[in-house]
Amino acid sequence: MRRAFYFETISDFLSREDEAILGRIVANNPNDLNDLQKNSWIAQIRILKNSLDQNSRGALFFEYSIPRMGKRVDAVVIQNGIIFLLEFKVGAPRFDRYAIDK
After folding, report:
1. What sections of 16-55 are H helices per DSSP?
2. Taking residues 13-21, what's their average pLDDT?
3. Please, what sign has the CA dihedral across residues 96, 97, 100, 101?
4. Where in the chain are the domains?
5. How many secondary structure helices (H) and strands (E) does the chain include?
6. Which of 11, 13, 58, 74 is positioned for an S-S bond with 79, CB 3.0–4.6 A?
7. For residue 82, what are the CA distances in angstroms to 11, 56, 97?
8. What percent of the chain has pLDDT over 90?
């Protein structure tokens, strides 16, 4: 079982075309794909590309399944020995309780 729909070093992620990244995420997605999910991934890719530094050492995971918790996080960035768990709410007008408790 794959833990993530996508995994790449930060420098490789930043050098890839957005469409290639999206294609790998979609190819590893076992669920039905709708436009809302696809557009969310496109936005996440762009946000991360604008936020990460090409010289950063580390890795990036999209849709990472957290072992033994039965939950999945939108993105994990491991950078300079620090682990960042990122939950995106692209286009959401507010943050509902379920999003905070996730």
Report:
1. 18-27, 35-51
2. 96
3. negative
4. 4-101
5. 4, 4
6. 58
7. 16, 12, 27
8. 61
Strand bridging mode 71-79 / 4-9: unpaired
**All residues at 6 or more sequence positions from 63 whose CB lies less than 8 Å from its CB, including other chains:** 4, 5, 6, 25, 28, 29, 72, 73, 74, 75
Reported as a single tens digit per residue, the pLDDT across 38-72 is 999 999 999 999 999 888 889 999 999 988 877 88
Of 1, 19, 16, nearest in space to 63 by CA:
1
Could you give the CA distance from residue 20 to residue 95 in angstroms, rounded to a whole number?
Answer: 30
What 3-state class would DSSP assign to 50? helix
Task: Tell me how far apart the alpha carbons of residues 19 and 24 are, in angstroms, rounded to a whole number.
Answer: 9
- Residue spans of alpha helices (H) in the chain: 10-15, 18-27, 35-51, 97-101
Q: What is the pLDDT of residue 92?
A: 66
